[in-house]
From TrEMBL:
Record EC number: 2.3.1.225
Segments forming a coiled coil: none
PANTHER family in alphabetical order: PALMITOYLTRANSFERASE, ZINC FINGER DHHC DOMAIN CONTAINING PROTEIN
Entry GO terms, CC: endoplasmic reticulum; Golgi apparatus; membrane
Membrane topology: Multi-pass membrane protein
Protein name, entry field: Palmitoyltransferase
One Pfam family, short name: DHHC
C-alpha cells in the first residue's frame, strides 16, 4: 500500500511538471481538454437535435438551427460523387429502414466497452480508497436489468395485428374519424385497420398503438412493449448516472489523495501559480484520459437519454404516440384543424392503460359484448 501511494504521488508530480510545460500553449488559447470536451458535447447535442429530436418532435424541424444543419449537410453531400452518394444511401436504407441486427450488436458492444473502460480505470482507484465493493453489486444489477429489458424490447410482441385478432383489437379504441377512419383497410395486410394501428414498413406488419420502429431493438414499439421500452430507457439513464458517480468518485480520490488543489504549476513566465480548474482538468486528462473522457461522455449521454425518456413518459401520460403526433403535425402544416385527443383519459388511467394493456383490451371487449 505504501509503495502504491508513493508511486501515485511521484507519478502525479511528474504529470504536474509536464502540464506546467504545456501551460503556455493552454493559456494562449490552443486546444486543451476543456475545449475538446465542450466541442464533443456540442457535436453530440447537435446530432441529437438534428436526428432524434426532429424524429420525435416534428415541430423542431422548422427551427432555424435544424434547417441550417440540413442545408449544411446538403451542401457537403453535394460535393460527394453521385455514385458514392447512391451507395451511401443504399447502406443507410439497409441499416435504418430494413430489419437487421447491426444496432443490436452495436448496443451490446457499446455497453460492454463502456463498462470495461469504467471498471478498468475506476476499480484500482476505488480499491485504493477501499470503496470498490460498494459499487460491484449495483453495477451487476443495473447491467442485468438493462440487458433483460433490452431482450424484451427486441423480441417481445409490440402488438402485432393479424386477420385472426383484428376484430378483437378494433374494439379497444374508438375511431376519431380524423386520424383513424372506420372501414379503412390496410393495403398490405388486407383487413380493416383498428383505430390507433399502423402498418410498419420495416417489420411489414400492422402494430396496435404503433409508436415508432426502434433500430436499436430491431423491433416496433407499440401497445404491448411501450412500457418495457420506457423502463429500458430508464435503466440506461441509471447505468449512465452510476458510471458518472464511479468516475467522479475515482477522480475525487485522486485529487484528495495527491492534494492537487494545493499544488502549484509554472505559468508561461516560469512563475509558480496556484492550481486552477483548467490546469487540474488537463492534468487529470493526461493521467486518466479514458476515465475523464468516459465521464464527460456519460454526462452528455445521461442528459440526452433523460430528455428522450421524459418525452416517452409524456406520451404515455397523455395517451399519445409519436405516429399520431406526426399525423397532427402534417395536418397543422396543411392548414387543417387539429382533432382533440379523445384517447386521453387522465394521467392515472393513461398510466394504468400503458402498464396493463391486456386489462384495457379485456375491459373494451366486455364493454362491447354488453352492447350486443
Amino acid at each position: 500500500m505504501c509503495t502504491t501511494a508513493v508511486y501515485m504521488k511521484d507519478d502525479i508530480q511528474n504529470k504536474l511538471e509536464s502540464i506546467s510545460k504545456l501551460t503556455k500553449s493552454i493559456l494562449q488559447g490552443k486546444m486543451d481538454f476543456l475545449f475538446i470536451a465542450g466541442l464533443y458535447v456540442l457535436l453530440w447535442m447537435a446530432a441529437f437535435l438534428f436526428y432524434f429530436a426532429t424524429s420525435f418532435f416534428p415541430a423542431l424541424s422548422d427551427l432555424w438551427p435544424v434547417t441550417h444543419l440540413q442545408r449544411g449537410f446538403d451542401l457537403i453531400t453535394s460535393c460527394i460523387p453521385r455514385s458514392w452518394r447512391r451507395r451511401s444511401f443504399e447502406i443507410y436504407v439497409r441499416i435504418f429502414h430494413e430489419r437487421n441486427h447491426f444496432f443490436q450488436w452495436m448496443y451490446l458492444v457499446l455497453v460492454t466497452a463502456g463498462h470495461s473502460v469504467v471498471m478498468l480505470d475506476t476499480w484500482p482507484l476505488l480499491a485504493h480508497e477501499g470503496t470498490h465493493t460498494d459499487h460491484l453489486l449495483p453495477t451487476i444489477a443495473f447491467l442485468a436489468v438493462n440487458l433483460t429489458l433490452f431482450a424484451v424490447c427486441c423480441y417481445g410482441n409490440p402488438g402485432r395485428i393479424t386477420a385472426k385478432n383484428a376484430l378483437k383489437y378494433s374494439k379497444v379504441f374508438p375511431y376519431d374519424e380524423v386520424l383513424y377512419q372506420r372501414r379503412k383497410n390496410c393495403s398490405t395486410c388486407c383487413f380493416v385497420k383498428p383505430a390507433r394501428s399502423k402498418h410498419c414498413a420495416v417489420t411489414d406488419e400492422c402494430v396496435m398503438k404503433f409508436d415508432h420502429f426502434c433500430a436499436w431493438t430491431n423491433n416496433s414499439i407499440g401497445l404491448f412493449n411501450h412500457r418495457f421500452f420506457v423502463f429500458f430507457l430508464v435503466s440506461i439513464c441509471i447505468m449512465c448516472c452510476h458510471g458518472v458517480v464511479m468516475a467522479t468518485h475515482s477522480l475525487q480520490h485522486v485529487i484528495n489523495f495527491n492534494h492537487l488543489w494545493k499544488a502549484k504549476y509554472l505559468n508561461s513566465e516560469g512563475q509558480s501559480q496556484p492550481m486552477t480548474f483548467q490546469v487540474l482538468m488537463q492534468t487529470l486528462f493526461m493521467k486518466y484520459p479514458f476515465l475523464v473522457f468516459m465521464a464527460v461522455a456519460l454526462v452528455t449521454l445521461t442528459v440526452m437519454m433523460a430528455g428522450f425518456t421524459a418525452y416517452h413518459v409524456f406520451l404515455i401520460a397523455t395517451n399519445q404516440t409519436t405516429n399520431e403526433r406526426y399525423k397532427k403535425h402534417r395536418m397543422k402544416r396543411s392548414g387543417h384543424v387539429l382533432p382533440a385527443n379523445i384517447y386521453d383519459k387522465g394521467i392515472v388511467k393513461n398510466l394504468l392503460h400503458a402498464l396493463f394493456p391486456h386489462r384495457g383490451i379485456e375491459a373494451a371487449q366486455k364493454k362491447y359484448n354488453k352492447t350486443l
